[in-house]
Amino acid sequence: MKHHSVLLPAIALTNASLGTYAWSTPPQSSVRKQYSNRISCFVLKAQDDSDDQIGTKYSGYNVLGTELSCCCSNVGGSGIGTGFYRNGFCSTGDLDLGRHTVCVRVSTDFLAFSKSVGNDLSTPMPQYNFPGLKDGDVWCLCAQRWAQAYNAGKAPQLFLQATHEKTLDYVPLEVLRIFAIDGQEASTVIEELKLQRSRLDGLMNQGQSEDSASFQ
Question: CB under 8 Å to 182, separation ≥6 — which residues?
């Protein structure tokens, strides 16, 4: 099913923005990997990188406004973490020109589409620390590549809590929620945030009322 009418007004895809950034990786000389285990995401610690402080990029906020969750630290059993920084998170920074911010679960259909538009995600490229993807693998996809697939009716499912907030610069949250694998959990988070906001508003209004009364 295609959803052209919702997303097309929100973004503008250009040839420049759809360059092949899928296999990009940070300068290996600037990072030191520490693995906690093969299941949880590992942390990349920066030594000195004035262009991009890689050590801070494993954290951040997701599209719901809460702490960014791990996307996948062991893609297809390869031992390679996903993300521009290969730390398992869809975090981003100035060096990440492709904005690898959408945590997706790829399908055979999507991989075929991606290859047909010049973005081959199936073929391993060891020189870029890229394992190659197969049906069911989880990967941090470029935001505009996801939007391109959406416009073609080929968008893969995604994990909202592991999708970086920068994705909202390209795709509205309402659209992302349609494809969310963790949609029920995300809805719970959204309701909790609304409740917290309501409580905070109540406390602020109460404080303002008390301040007004003290001057009467």
Answer: 159, 160, 161
